[in-house]
Amino acid sequence: MSAREDSALSRRIEACRAEGRPALVGYLPAGYPTVEESVAAAVALGRNGADVIEIGIPYSDPVMDGPVIQAATTESLANGFHVSDVFTVVRAVAEQTDAVPVVMTYWNPVLQTGVDEFARRLSAAGGAGIITPDLIPDEAGEWFAASEEHGLDRIFLVAPSTTRERMDMTVHAASGFLYAVSVMGVTGARDRVSSAAEDVVARARAAGAQRVCVGLGVSTREHVLEIGRYADGVIVGTALVRALGEGGPEAVGRLTAQLAGRE
Q1: In which pathway does it act (predicted)?
Q2: Beta-carbon neighbour count of residue 259 at 10 Å?
């Protein structure tokens, strides 16, 4: 993928592969419902079986998020979330669990902070990289420079609609892992995993991707096992956010243990 093959993120996913299982990647938004509770929930994720934790930055115009995550991020913003709070959550994950923390964010909050400044602060907090759903490699020059400078992975997205040319470009621009979106549309837990997921992973591998994680629609242990047959990691978001909203950090811990096969 890139020169950053030996990052903490790539090593963790490779370690999971060596154990014969997919990496479990959990998503939660920072600041939901409060910063303190989002810290507790993220730590519960890491202590109950998540290998990688995506900490989302709430954003006022989320183009990819489904209704559950939109409602959570809206509440977080209403409760006074600041972008700097994401580093508090990342640091807690890095210091209190053995999970690898990354940030998932639309690009505007990074631009507003300053790309190099954001990268510096994320690295200092123990973060491993950034997932950028609305940033494409051909517009990411400043991020390439900052990620190399501060030792961060660049996690780009591919989807069923991704052309072969764009797949090649994205695979070679990404590091850590490639985020494969399994369905066209917004996030949300679904009863069954889209059959398009396996095809996207196969196309990514054909383009040279070494680690591919699948997200959008995963909500059960059965989904984890199904996707784990062909992908290197399984990303769970909406189901965890719903658990947090309904039962607090303890419910996040219980669901994570179930998804990880610990219960």
Answers
A1: Amino-acid biosynthesis; L-tryptophan biosynthesis; L-tryptophan from chorismate: step 5/5
A2: 25
User: Distance between CA atoms of 146 and 144, rounded to whole angstroms?
Assistant: 6
Q: Which residues contact 120 (CB under 8 A, 6 or more apart)?
A: 146, 150
**Contact of 85 with 122, CB cutoff 8 Å:** no
What is residue 114's three-state secondary structure?
coil
C-alpha to C-alpha distance for 201 and 80, rounded to whole angstroms = 38
Torsion, CA 90, CA 91, CA 92, CA 95, rounded to 10: 130
Domain boundaries, the chain: 8-260
Q: How far apart are CA 146 and CA 116, in angstroms?
A: 5
pLDDT (tens digit, 9 = 90+) per residue, 43-64? 999 999 999 999 999 976 655 5
Specify whether the CB–CB gap between 5 and 218 falls below 8 A. Answer: no
* Residue partners of 231: CB distance under 8 A and separation at least 6: 22, 180, 197, 201, 212, 213, 214
166-213 pLDDT tens trace: 999 999 999 999 999 876 444 444 455 557 889 999 999 999 999 999
What CATH number is given for 8-260 in this structure?
A: 3.20.20.70
Residues 152, 139: Cα–Cα separation, whole Å: 17
The rounded distance, in Å, linking the Cα atoms of 91 and 94 is: 5
Question: In this predicted model, what pLDDT tens digit does every residue of 74-102 receive, in sequence order?
Answer: 888 888 899 999 999 999 999 999 999 99
Beta strands 233-236 and 52-56 are: unpaired
User: Encoding tokens for residue 28?
Assistant: 């939660």
Catalytic residues: 54, 65
Would you state the structure tokens that stand for residue 233, as one six-digit string? Answer: 């990691």
β partners of residue 104: 56, 131
* CA nearest neighbour of 181 among 192, 170, 196, 191: 196
Could you tell me if 237 and 188 are in contact, meaning their C-beta atoms sit under 8 angstroms apart?
no
